[in-house]
Amino acid sequence: MVTDRYQHLRHHPDVGELLAFAAAEDLPVVAVDNHPGSVPLETVHLPQRCMLLFGQEGPGLTPEALAGADLSVSIAQFGSTRSINAGVAAGIAMHAWIRQHAAPGAPA
């Protein structure tokens, strides 16, 4: 699908450097993790320019990552499972962003 032609990947060796990059680029960091204090993704307005940050399945995001985030959202889940695959979470969060910002009729 030649995504390498339009995706720009940058590796950051640690959370501190990632957060510094986001700040320098004026990108609000949206933590996606189901921890106390996060707001439901279904009810929040995501910034048009932002960085979505996902944690590892199980332990989730580090305390440093959560502390550096501008907004923390959770994905509604049903049943006893409190964790979903990070790839699935990314797809859900990106679709929520698309519905708000890139879908036909979405506000600019």
UniProtKB/TrEMBL annotation:
Pfam families: SpoU_methylase
InterPro entries tied to this protein: Alpha/beta_knot_MTases, rRNA_Methyltransferase, SpoU_MeTrfase, tRNA_m1G_MTases_N
Keyword terms of this UniProt record: Methyltransferase, Transferase
GO biological process per UniProt: methylation; RNA processing
Single Gene Ontology MF annotation: RNA methyltransferase activity
Keyword set includes Nucleotidyltransferase: no
Domain of life, source organism: Bacteria
Domain tRNA/rRNA methyltransferase SpoU type: from-to ranges: 7-95
Keyword Translocase: no
Matches recorded under PANTHER family: RRNA METHYLTRANSFERASE 3 (PTHR43191), RRNA METHYLTRANSFERASE 3, MITOCHONDRIAL (PTHR43191:SF2)
Protein name as annotated: SpoU rRNA Methylase family protein
Species annotation: Geodermatophilus ruber
